[in-house]
Write a structure and sequence with these properties.
130 residues; alpha/beta; five-stranded mixed β-sheet; 23% strand
Length: 130
């Protein structure tokens, strides 16, 4: 029974790897990649986060769930580390950890700070798809 279960799990993992483009891309922030995504008019979610931030930890599973949904497959999620990427944080005019900023290409479509409600985070991500 354990072998069947292991085989099933391995098959599911293989299926996940074998089907590209069904999940949002989640990346550590890189200015060149961000610029490329903006130039391509891609939907973008910038997640300004920190390991020690409890609100950020509450946001993470919500963002991960959205990233796995097919409707957000074209979304690129850039994670900015608040403590170590101060220059990037300032460039986004963000003052706090747990800041989420949505873009459609170069146009900011919305932002939130400290929000842990799944519905409003989803609405923010959705604004980047329009």
């Amino acid at each position: 029974m354990a072998g069947v279960r292991l085989g099933f799990i391995a098959g599911l993992m293989l299926l996940t790897v074998a089907v590209p483009g069904i999940a949002a891309e989640k990346l550590a922030f890189d200015q060149a990649r961000f610029d490329t995504a903006q130039q391509a008019n891609r939907p973008i979610l910038v997640d300004i986060t920190a390991r020690a931030c409890l609100i950020c930890r509450a946001q993470e599973p919500i963002i991960d769930r959205l990233a796995a949904e097919p409707q957000f497959k074209d979304l690129t999620i850039f994670q900015v580390d608040f403590p170590s990427q101060n220059d990037v944080v300032r460039a986004f005019r963000a003052q706090y950890r747990s800041t989420l900023i949505a873009f459609k290409g170069k146009s900011e479509t919305g932002r939130s700070v400290g929000d842990t409600r799944a519905a409003s985070i989803e609405a923010l991500a959705q604004s980047a798809l329009k």
